[in-house]
Amino acid sequence: MIQLVDVAKFYGSFQALAGLNVSVQPGAIGLLGPNGAGKSTLIKAILGLVKLSRGTATILGMDAATQSREIREQVGYMPEDDCTIAGLQGVQSVALAGQLAGLPALTALRRAHEMLDYVLLGEARYREVQTYSVGMRQKVKLAQALIHAPKLLFLDEPTNGLDPVGREKMLRLIRDLTQKKGVSVVISTHILSDVESCCDAALILGRGELLVYDTIQALQKSVDSSCRIRVAHDVAKLCAALSARGYQIEAIGPDEARIRGEGDLGTAIFAAAQECGSEVREIMPSRNSLEDIYLAAVRATEGRPEKESA
Amino acid sequence: MPIAELGYRPWDGARTGVMQRWMAITRSEIGIAFGSSKLLRRFLIFAWIPILYFCPIFLAIGYVADPANNLTEGAMLTEIAGEFLSGDALQRIRADPQSFLPGIWSIVFYFFFAYTQSVFAMVIVAIVGPPLISRDVKSKAFLVYFSKPIQPWQYLLGKLATVIFFVFCITLFPALVLYTISIALSPDVGTVQATLPILLQISMASLATALPIGMVVLLLSSLTGNRRIATFFWLAAWIFGEIAFRVLTLGGNFSRNFEPPPWAYFLSLRELTTRAASYLFQLPENMEALFTNLGPAGERLQRSMRGFASDMGDASVIEGSTDVLAATSSGFPPWVSLLAIALLSSLSGALLLRRVTKPVRI
Known about the structure:
The complex is a heterodimer.
Chain A: E1 2-11, E2 14-24, E3 28-32, H1 39-46, E4 54-59, E5 62-63, H2 68-74, E6 75-78, H3 90-100, H4 105-118, H5 134-146, E7 152-156, H6 164-179, E8 184-188, H7 192-198, E9 201-206, E10 209-215, H8 216-220, E11 226-231, H9 236-244, E12 248-253, E13 256-260, H10 265-276, E14 280-285, H11 290-301
Parallel strand pairs in A: 3-8, 3-9, 6-7, 7-8
Antiparallel strand pairs in A: 1-2, 1-4, 4-5, 9-10, 11-13, 11-14, 12-13
Chain B: H1 18-36, H2 38-46, H3 50-65, H4 75-84, H5 87-95, H6 97-128, H7 131-139, H8 142-146, H9 152-170, H10 172-184, H11 190-222, H12 227-248, H13 269-280, H14 283-294, H15 299-311, H16 335-361
């Protein structure tokens, strides 16, 4: 879906993107990174809005340097900023976005209504966009990004400023788009739980470099052999039995503990439980949280000197 | 809940061409301007009032130039024409209307552009122009436009066409109405053919008025996210430029030998567009031909024109001069005004492109 080969962007001597090499697969991708990591620059480079200093970016099989117009016909972008066109009603604003994308006026108006239905903006569509709440504006921006039926959608901080209910609705829409409508989505955000809840993969940038790109499932898989157990009553007896078998034990609560060690952990737990008469209620393999992965990746870049342009 | 919610559906229809995309911006901006400004709607009506002044002139010229019309029957129209045409001049025009009418019409249209509509154009641009880009600067709406498959020049063309539309509303469209009335009262069909070039002159003069002021107001609008500041910039550029021009040409009111600096009119946008209009309406050539053909009989016409120009506050009109628009031919050759307009528009356009693409380049 997105192939980046040695993609670099310099602003004077500042390096915004430092030779990115990655091939992003279709689906829902979380684009993560601290402020100034190069996320916005990468999105603008993919849309052909900024010229790359080096390298090539191929999006949906099209070269970003020479086919930016064709790319923007197939790609939708929901910016982080308000970006409202003052004086227009919500529906007019979405219809205008459709016309700019090349939809005939009547089709644009019809689809504007469809998109606003889809993002659940009701009669408020007939109000001027300046009067909208943050949540309504996010919905209008999503409808504007969707109106020309893009194959790939970039969402910049889609849940920014939303209350929990609004955030959940937005995430549900994103999940629906990726899972049922076949639209690939790249979500640029700082809210890691959003990525965990609706993305298939995460791409973490730091100082313009690619730090991590993998599926969420692979990233969350624990590197060591450990699991978490929950028993019916006192976990201490089971811990003692497992400890006697040479496993490392970390108590989490009165009835929970984390077990580390080599070999078949499941068999060993059940054997120890039978021995000490404990009743095992739950065994869960340990998973890395996205937050741990993110912090580890970003901290690894801290303290490193910034690269200068050649 | 919508009655017939269709949900999200893919779309793969034929896309519109490049032209329709910038026109979508223009249509949208025109709608916003009409919908949000009562002042604009009222001013547009007000700006058509000069037609009430010029229409009787065209009616009178059309009536008295037709040899088939009886001058005594249409006493009122004859009286109006008599204000600026002597009896001898009338007889000469009636004898050969097709030789005189194109020249006279062209001159009257110039007056219509130069002395009333050019001022109204500056005012309407002050109402319509400043928010056009400053609004997008404030809300960072550039990303909405440029994330779609349109180029920055299409965005600018869409905005510029909005200004041009409103300027045309008070220059081109009323001028076309005047032309249609004039044609309706012309002595014969041959007049249509003889005066066709005037249509082109009207269109070109309207464009020469709208283009530079449109580009300059958009440039000023792109400098700030506050429409009031952009309006102030525009009014300051217009009024201070006008004052500077008037001061530099003030000596013309007192001395026939006074020579204003040839570059003086570059300071005033309105004067620059007026000069361009005089060139496009071939004013000096038409006046020379008219007065030569009329001879002494055209003296009253010259006096009327001088009086009209003076009434309109044109400081370049020298009392006693035989050339009512002496200043328009003074200094640089007339085509220089067109060149200046082209340069000003190009420079403003280049700066505008940089201004509007800056937010998305970083």
